[in-house]
Specification:
- There is one protein chain.
- By secondary structure, the chain is mostly helical.
- 77% of the residues lie in helices and 0% in strands.
- The chain contains twelve helices and no strands.
């Protein structure tokens, strides 16, 4: 289980830094182009990784994998649209709805047991998150960007719930990511053929998007899938609520945001509650193993 926590922390690091790099790329290319480059980058990375592991990737064909991939397509496209309309810190604020969706979906779809203490810590963590990244410039938020940001968190949460179910059936994480990206690239390619105005490419935009895709779409997602094999879905995603703190730190030199006492207190509450959630879950697992 400790390995699961390490994979999850590595994923959080990748997911925390990647959006800033993606934002730089979106200054010179369109959201749909960035999403397409994202899919192509992940496909190539998964294929090479499979060769290095001497475990070639497989393209899975099934009803539930098709549903999973469609959710991923919607999540990726809406994420890049929201990134193009909002700042990284604003994305960090709205992206925390992912934690809420993840916990609710894990409870209703995966039937995971969540103790009263964990529910309380979840609420504290979410509250601390909103305190930390409460935007002072909320009046300048794009309505379309807000809707897209909230919707992409829902689709990613739903996608990861479906991934968790597939993991329990022994499906390899690299092949799941490869299959998702094939579907994403194909559907986005069709969309861009229908709407050719979406094509907009510059060398710097492609470079930034490729790097961000490797960090978030490939490494960050692969680490998350490996973590989901070892720890509960709800716990893995509650821990991910800490990513706005990292994103705000790395974004500050480029997109400076004035920190208030409320922001600082919120960061402390957020980090403390996430640490407590991990401790409660770890002790609970040890007790369960001892009983067995």
């Amino acid at each position: 289980m400790l390995k699961g926590y390490m994979y999850n922390i590595a994923s959080i690091l990748m997911m925390g830094i990647g959006p800033l790099i993606a934002k730089f790329g979106l200054q010179t290319i369109s959201a749909s182009t960035a999403a397409f480059i994202n899919a192509c980058t992940i496909i190539i990375a998964c294929y090479i990784w499979g060769l290095l592991l001497k475990r070639p990737v497989r393209f899975y064909v099934s009803k539930d994998m098709t549903i999973l991939s469609c959710c991923n397509v919607m999540g990726v496209l809406l994420m890049y649209v929201s990134l193009s309309l909002l700042s990284p810190v604003q994305i960090g604020f709205l992206g925390r709805f992912y934690t809420v969706f993840a916990v609710l979906l894990s409870f209703f779809m995966l039937k995971e047991k969540i103790s009263k203490m964990e529910w309380m810590l979840v609420l504290v963590a979410v509250g601390g998150t909103f305190m930390f990244i409460a935007p002072k410039d909320s009046g300048s938020l794009s309505i379309i960007g807000i809707i897209c940001a909230i919707m992409y968190t829902f689709f990613f949460a739903l996608c990861n719930v479906l991934v968790k179910q597939r993991m329990e059936k022994g499906v390899h994480s690299n092949s799941i990511l490869f299959t998702n990206s094939i579907w994403t690239g194909a559907l986005l390619g069709i969309y861009m053929l229908i709407s050719p105005s979406g094509w907009q490419i510059t060398p710097s935009g492609v470079a930034f998007t490729t790097i961000a895709s490797l960090m978030t779409g490939f490494l960050g997602t692969l680490f998350l899938y490996e973590a989901l094999k070892r720890i509960r879905f709800s716990i893995a995603n509650i821990m991910r609520a800490s990513s706005p703190v990292l994103l705000a730190v790395v974004s500050f030199p480029f997109f400076p945001v004035e920190l208030t006492p409320l922001n600082i207190i919120g960061a402390g509450i957020l980090l403390a509650s996430i640490m407590l959630i991990g401790i409660v879950d770890f002790k609970g697992r040890r007790v369960d193993k001892g009983i067995q």
